[in-house]
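Predict both folds.
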Amino acid sequence: MQHRPSGRRLAAALLTLSTVTALTGTLVAVPAVAAVPTAAATAASAADAANLPVDAEVVSAGTTGYLTSRKDDTGTTVLEWHAYGDGSVTTVGTGIVGYDSNSDFLVTGDGNTVSVRDMKDGGAWRASFNIGAEFPSGSTKLVGVVNENLFVSVSTTDDYHELWQLSKVNGVTKKSKLSSRPKNIDYKVVASSGNRFVVLGSVREPYIPTDRIVYWSATSDVNSASVVDWGGSSGTLQWDQSSTGALTADWNGWVHATQDGGLEFSAQRTGTTTVTRIPLTGELTRAVVAGIVGDTVFYGVPGTATAETPGPLYARNLMDAGARPYKVLDNFSTVAHAPDGSLLVRGFNAEGDGLFRITDGGVALESSTGRVLAVQFTDARVPAHVDLEKAGTPVPMEWTLSRGNAVVDLTLTHVATGRKLTARLDPPAPGNRFTYAWNGLLDGISAPNGSYTWKATATPTDGIGGPAGISGSFEVRRRANAHDLNDNGSTDVIARDASGNLWRDDLFDWPVNGQAASARRTRIGTGWQVYRQIEAVGDIAGSAHGDLVALDGSGYLWHHLGKGDGTLAPRVRIGGGWGGYKQLTGGSDLNGDGRSDLLATDGSGVLWLYKGTGSSTAPFAPRVRVGGGWGVYNQITATGNIAGAGAGDLVARDASGVLWLYLGYGNGTFAPRIRVGGGWGAFSQLVGAGDVTNDGRPDLIAYGAGGAAVYRSTGSTTAPFSRQTTTLYANEGTKFNSVA
């Protein structure tokens, strides 16, 4: 037999689909199982490479050719034999149907009269059967063909259904009764291999309740002309006339219903009692088995030859208990079983449209229709919820096309701001699955939280057909960061220069090359020289975004509400009388109510707590005295919970440059101080900057003439900080007079 070579092993061929959609909705990798190409996978005739009619379905396959069925212009069925040797196509009948014989015997008929021709012998007639005349005492139905043997179900006048095997020896009809069961029986020859075949049968026994069915499966040999090894069990309906199966030298399997009303494929390896079961869900509850090749079963819900909508053919390794299904063809409609154990499948994938041969060595296009299918998306895998908390972890997205010769352009849009990311996806090499790994950036900075839409457009590179589009949406959500002004989860550091300009540095949401780095600097205001102190205080007005408070020279405290887009609303006066305070610090929840609070030290060294209210008109409750003796410190910074005690903490630097840690009790008071270390006098400002390093703990930024440093919190009370270098404010140690 002359076949087109697969040119690759089965696993390697399927690897063109790389990571594909499993039937359970997860992503699985195609198993890398080596398979040796069969000797039969040799070159096919070039004349047969592109002569398959578009509407042709495959019926049967032998060693010398294959049979197809199609409708002519009048709607009459036309059967055609395609020879491998010279590529010739011969019409062998009209108005009749063909049967899959797993051989070169061409079996055709009209349901009553059945003819057999041997195509290996030039199409010589072998036999003709008038089934009705062979069984005049009952109604008959052809239920299967194996080589040149027919299997007929006969309903007798005494309410028995019989299964008969018919053949002709030297022109004489030979009939053998294989089974006889009470009424309501159904028989079906579902699969064969060589001379062996599998029969399914079911019957409603008189002693079984009306909703119970006994079913059987049996394996036998046409040479013995008897059914052996009937096996069965009672239960709800296990199979019907659409049930399918597969039989090879190594496997026997079939699709059947389960007790709970589902559907599964069961396969038993020859010589063992072990049964592999594959539950079928969703659309696959109508699945049929195309066949088993080697240790791989192929199955799915057939479409039609002319359809461009997917009816995929799936495959699964039967020897691997943990194996998951993967897609072989984007669409399949009919299957024929060749004597060498290979399958001929009518369908299409990225390689083309036509007849595919599946062997233990590969999947290859045997005969093409020449039809060029319009590009379409057959699958999309974009997560509905995107987690950008994990530093530097790309977000995988993928789209599968009906064919790979196209370019795919992707647009991600942040709904609230309209900001977009556009990208042309790299072409697959090889295959038709396009992938994109989103790095979590939008317009060069960490992407903001909220709703996103995505749209992928595929444009064919061969100019045939127009673009295809597919779209969807997803959500980005992160933990709140008290020092985040544009709702992208990353820290924003605010700095004022000598001219009164206010600048916002939006840090990346994760370290870059091990360092905290600014993604972009933006001027967000002018005239800020009127303020004596500026402090980032987190969300104090219920807007879910970070805010600022500023103390002017007249002792008035002003609130600048964060709008969530990196800008600030016009200021609102909180109140007067704040001029007596030497220091303000905020942005940390000190009493465990979920709201940011404010601390202030007066000229007498008393520390006062202003609890956050969440109100935009009155963001702070009346002050509460924390304690005295705080006048020894020239810098007090609320850092958040840096030592793991469950509440916001405080660090304070004394005149000698020693930094002290005050652990928060969670009620607005603090534990006795713990010495952190000396040398902190080199910095002009210490800023509690939220979670800079994206490890779930708030960090500290120190700014001074020598530049800036990030002090990553460790969660330890004895060594609470680990210093890291940063590119933030590099060579700008004297440019800013206020950092918050």
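Second protein follows, with its predicted structure tokens after the sequence.
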Amino acid sequence: MLSDIEIAQNAKMRPIIEIAKQLDIDEDDVELYGKYKAKLSEALYKKLESKPDGKLVLVTAINPTPAGEGKTTISVGLAQAMNKTGRKAVLALREPSLGPVFGIKGGAAGGGYSQVVPMEDINLHFTGDMHAITAANNLLCAAVDNHMQQGNELEIDQRRILFKRCMDMNDRALRNIVIGMGGKMSGIPREDGFQITVASEIMAILCLASDLEDLKNRIGRILVGYNKKNEPVYAKQLGVQGAMTALLKDALKPNLVQTLENTPAFIHGGPFANIAHGCNSVRATKLALKLGDYCVTEAGFGSDLGAEKFFDIKCRFAGLKPDCVVLVATVRALKYNGGVPKDKLGEEDLDALKSGIVNLKVHIENMRKFGVPVVVAINRFYKDTDAELKYIEDFCHEMGAEVSMAEIFEKGGEGGKDLADKVCSAIDKTPSAYKPIYDEKLPIKEKLEIIAKEIYRADGVTFTASAQKDLAEIEKLGFADIPVCVAKTQYSLSDDPSKLGKPENFNITVRELKLSAGAGFVVALTGSILTMPGLPKKPAALNIDCDKDGNITGLF
């Protein structure tokens, strides 16, 4: 059996200029990054303003196993299947982070015969967007420290600087550091730390900005910290928002690539859903909606994380109205939620499946709360038994949910035709009545209570003393009436990764609240979630190599 990278390297890619022509994009609007990658011009948006939008399909999932369950693979395969069945579909996904690529989860370009290509480029440096975001983020950090070094006119309190440096790599040693050591000319000594680039507010801003002007204004609103009078200090007071925007000018343009079957794909923006808002850029999604009859997009991890934020943050800000949710599940993930160890998931176990399927039930119910029709996609693995698959199918039918057995990994678009038909049928039969789950004007505590009770099925929310203090400061600054973005483990509906299935009798504990004023939301850190991951004992980087001819191996 060929590996993902071997399949991708054998793909017959078409020049990206031909993919653009499929979408009726003029050659003048295509900015080439080699033969198979491109960014699209600002002028294209104006040309498409009067064109009606296509249908928006969100792909999300149940709570995953640590191995991941193929949500991106289903997204890619569904878009391919739609085109195979005579519909015009465009894919809109996030960019992979180098953290998981070299860490434990692997790449984020799909798998098997449902991948976006060139796979190596997409998973590594791609068009440089991650580097631009990192540079812009760290320019602001450098400006803060330089301002204090050069006289500190704003009287910034070095003990209350909130904005952290970032890098796109898992490096636990950088979570908490001391900078400015080495004497007077080396800066003001203070505690600092790094977070991974995809968790940075700059990443969130890039993904939510509507254009360059909006991007610059959002950057200016970033809360950097406080001064010695306990007054807020914003990025615009340091005067570098223009330079930061200059660094991000090209990164703001969506990236156009293709799937193995030459379906057009936008890969743009890459926030994690467990520590950020977990959706690709608004600009890429809106462009895909103008250029196709269907836009297939995805939100990170389980629907309790990525999908909730897609509906309550991204769609709210962008004025998007999703038409259908595809909820990805696997037999092995349901058995894992039923208590089966990771190394035993390939064995038939109907009792564990019956115990774990409650997790699927919660996710179906949750998605319906947003007023959007739901289709369940079972990502089939070769070890799944007929009895297990039938049990899931019958369960979904009892819940009144359409279900499709997708063989997209092995067969590409051909294996997703049934899923494509059922998604389009659901859209035609049940018009979307999308609505966010909470009113953003409610107090922050009430918004978090609604998410915890309605989506996680918690009894309530507990705030630590530190979080209570954070809340009071955010409300004092006048930012109580914006959405909330919960940072939480992806493995459980609760904030405890060991509580699988449908946990009962628990509270969500908020230990810290952070204002992302530029992005336009408040981040609530729960449980033990971290914004700078660490590498595992045997990182994926150990399997990756490059020969003397530049051929990459071992990349997923």
